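Checklist before submission:
- one chain only
- standard amino acids only
- sequence pasted in full

Submission:
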Amino acid sequence: MKNNPNITAEQIANEIKDITADGVRYHIRHLKTRGIIMREGSTKSGKWVVLK
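Returned file contents:
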């Protein structure tokens, strides 16, 4: 996410191979609630920001 802030859950799942897109979304949700990442902008044209 630091290298590609526009990456999608599907793209992350394709790169990792051992996890589904739903699994990636699950982990993203937990990272957001812990204040580690946040989404800046809209769903389609926004980007990920790594806070910690």
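Reviewer check: Residues 9-50 form one domain.
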